[in-house]
Structures are given as C-alpha cells and as structure tokens.
Design a protein that fits this description.
Number of strands: 2
Structural class: mainly alpha
Number of domains: 2
Strand content: under 5%
Order of helices and strands: HHHHHHHHHEEHH
Bound molecules: zinc ion
Radius of gyration: 20 Å
Largest sheet: 2 strands, antiparallel
Length: about 200
C-alpha cells in the first residue's frame, strides 16, 4: 500500500499521472514479475509470474547481487521525489539517456549538469587554469575547430554516481567534467553509462 502511494507520487511527477498506475494490486503483480528471477523464492517451490518484460530481468541482474546499490538507489529516488523533481528535460536526446537507476535519477543528473551558474563557474575555472575549453576525453576544442562561433562552447557532465544524488547536496566544480557533444552523448548512449575513464579507453582502442 505504501509502495503504491509512493509510486503514484512518482508517476504524478513523471507524467500526468494515471489513476490505475501501480495500484496495490499492480504492485503485487509487479513484485511477482520480479519474483520469477528470485532463486530464494523458487527454492520454496514457488514460481512468480512467468510473463513479464525484458527490462525486469535487466533490473534484477543489476541490483539483485548488490543490496547496497539497491538501497542507495531507493533512498535517492525517495528523497528526490519527496522534495519534487526538477522539470522534465524536453529534448528527444534526453529521453534516450536513461541510466540503469531509472528516469527519476536521470532527470536529477541532467538538471545538475545544466545548472547555468555552475556551468559558467566551471568553464571560467578551466579557462583560468588551462587557457582553453577542451573535451576531457578527446581533447576537442570548439573554438579551435569552429573559430568565433565555437568560443566558450562545451558541455558539462556530472561525475557523481547517479544513485548518490541526494537533494540538498551541493554540486562542486570537481563533480563536473567538460565534454564535447560527441563524447557526452557516448557516455550516456547505453546502459550502464560509461565513466570518463571507460570512454577514454574505448576511444583509444
Ligand atoms: Zn570529446
Ligand atoms: Zn552527463
């Protein structure tokens, strides 16, 4: 019942909200969809609901063996929903970027890396220390490639693991990395998201 209420609050914040979304019966069904992967449940000779989506298996695999990650993710989702989510990103590319931890924390991640005040501070700090705005993965510089048109342009990526994004926690400049648009998209292109190090390694190969 409590889970159903929480999920409805989330649904309300993610979209218009649908009165039939995950009512208590729906939560029970969903739980049974997950149970089909649960060895402890199967060991009791029970089966769970055999039919279900492919995503349930992916989620089970990502979290079943890591209770710490699961609990941190659940805490972060609840905490962010409690304070109200940032405005939904509207572009289609944003909708392609969904972390394993789901739409809610993805939305928090995107909002943090688009905080214009912090983005400006980050760019200024990097220009001050390096004299340029270069991608931290491929070293691309917009101004060098596009001249005046590219001056001051680069994207900012938030480095903190998505399950640790709690409301009220300050983003520091050290939590942000500068990436060109290609590298930023490649970080987010598939689940799980790449780290900067993983992307560098991928680019070298
Ligand atoms: Zn790059
Ligand atoms: Zn990002």
């Amino acid at each position: 019942m409590n889970l159903s209420k929480l999920l409805n609050k989330i649904s309300g914040q993610l979209s218009k909200g649908n009165p039939d979304f995950r009512n208590p019966n729906g939560v029970y069904m969903k739980t049974m969809n997950f149970r089909r992967f649960d060895p402890a449940y199967r060991a009791q000779g029970k089966k769970g609901l055999e039919r279900g989506g492919k995503l349930e298996g992916e989620i089970w695999n990502a979290f079943a063996s890591d209770h710490h990650l699961l609990s941190e993710t659940a805490t972060a989702i609840r905490a962010n929903v409690d304070v109200g989510l940032p405005i939904e990103p509207t572009s289609d590319t944003d909708k392609d970027f969904e972390a394993e931890e789901g739409r809610i924390l993805t939305r928090v991640h995107l909002a943090r890396e688009r905080n214009q005040k912090l983005v400006q501070q980050k760019k200024l700090a990097v220009i001050k220390s390096t004299g340029k705005l270069a991608c931290e993965v491929c070293l691309f510089e917009f101004e060098a490639a596009y001249g005046e048109r590219g001056a001051g342009f680069i994207e900012v990526h938030h480095l903190k693991p998505i399950h640790t994004l709690l409301p009220g926690q300050k983003t520091t400049l050290g939590d942000l990395a500068l990436l060109c648009s290609n590298c930023h998209r490649m970080v987010h292109a598939r689940r799980p998201w790449f780290t900067i190090e993983q992307l560098r390694e991928q680019l070298q190969n």
